[in-house]
Amino acid sequence: MLMKGKRLLIAALAVTAPLVAGAAAAQDKGLISIIVNDTSNPYWFTEGKIAEATAEELGYEANVSSHKGDTNTESNQVDTAITNQAEAIILDPANADGSIGAVRKAVDAGIPVFIVNAEINQQGLAKAQLVSNNAQGAALGAQQWVQSVGDEAKYVELKGAPSDNNAATRSNGYETVLSQYPSLERVGSDVANWDRTQGYSKMQSMLQANPDVDGVISGNDEMALGAIAALKEAGKLDDVVVGGFDGSPDAVEAVRAGEMAYTVLQPVAIFAEEAVRMADTFVRTGETGIEGEKKLFDCMLVTAENVDQYTDPFVLEQ
């Protein structure tokens, strides 16, 4: 199932490949360097591929690399972009604080940086930060989770990497909603670093401590899918409500199969494309086209009721 989203996206991109190649040959605007987190995750894979296809459509050479959350790797990738005289860098940062130096290095070299998906904790360096409205998405997901599990339950939470501000924003958003229900009891929480394997092992441990758990609320889909695997193995999935966050193809299939109650879809395909178009605008005009530095993109729910409207990776037709 993990490759399904990739195959769908590659097929869609293949249709436009001749047009993209022609555009790139007709106008050589230079290089746009695209640095994402981990392309083995379908969310970041899509982010990189959409950004790459958009850059090539606009007449740029595009290079996609992944730092896998390591700031040293990220710094080396920024060095490479500087050496290659990139016109712009599209960056999904490795660390809210730890990536600031790499961004400053690019800016000092005269290369504009456009942040996508995860913020850095300093304003005024990047030309723009384009991210999902994580607080809105977390509230949306938590409300749906309560609707699914009821207002009296024992639950556990799987949290993302502490170096990513999105993890805290989502967890705080969940807490804001769930704390309104005094009969909801969180009996366990753990960090699984956005990873499916860690979600599986952390869920196993929390199940041993709390075998009567009623629900799992997760900071992303990969951790939720790991939890589902652990619950299946323990024969408990039918009794436990699981909610995710991202809108990944595997999570959507889990919603379709009745294994996951919902996922909160982040419009990564939309903001990855917009970041590249914004970079092109800036390279040509010196303007981003937006007021301020930060732009938020609202999330959407994928449930059993609307899952058939999910037609492409990370796209929900309205």
Helix content: 40-55%
Strand runs, count: 14
Categorize the overall geometry. elongated
Residues in β-strands, percent: 15-25%
Strand order in the largest sheet: 2-1-3-4-5-11
Average pLDDT confidence is 91
Q: What series of H and E elements makes up the topology?
A: HEHEHEHEEHEHEHEHEHEHEEEE
Sketch the major β-sheet. 6 strands, parallel
Terminal-residue CA separation: 25 Å
Question: Structural class of the secondary structure composition?
Answer: alpha/beta
CATH architecture term of the largest domain = 3-Layer(aba) Sandwich
Count of the domains: 2
Rg: 20 Å
Number of helices: 10
Give start-end ranges of low-pLDDT stretches. 1-26
CATH class of the largest domain: Alpha Beta
CATH topology of the largest domain: Rossmann fold
The CATH superfamily of the largest domain appears as: Response regulator
Signal peptide: 1-23
GO cellular component, one term: cell envelope
Protein name: ABC-type transport system periplasmic substrate-binding protein
Keywords: Signal
Descriptive tags:
single chain, alpha/beta, Rossmann fold, six-stranded parallel β-sheet, 10 helices, elongated, disordered N terminus
Written account of the structure:
- The chain has 318 residues and is of the alpha/beta class.
- The chain has 2 domains: 4-131 and 269-297, Rossmann fold, CATH 3.40.50; 134-265, Rossmann fold (3-Layer(aba) Sandwich), CATH 3.40.50.2300.
- It contains 10 helices and 14 strands.
- It has helices at residues 4-26, 42-57, 71-83, 100-108, 134-149, 165-178, 196-209, 221-233, 249-256, 268-285, and strands at 31-36, 61-66, 88-91, 113-116, 128-132, 153-159, 184-191, 215-218, 241-246, 262-265, 294-297, 300-303, 310-312, 315-316.
- The strands form 3 sheets. The chain has a 6-stranded parallel sheet, sandwiched between helices.
- The model is unreliable at 1-26 (pLDDT under 50).
- One of its GO terms (molecular function) is carbohydrate binding.
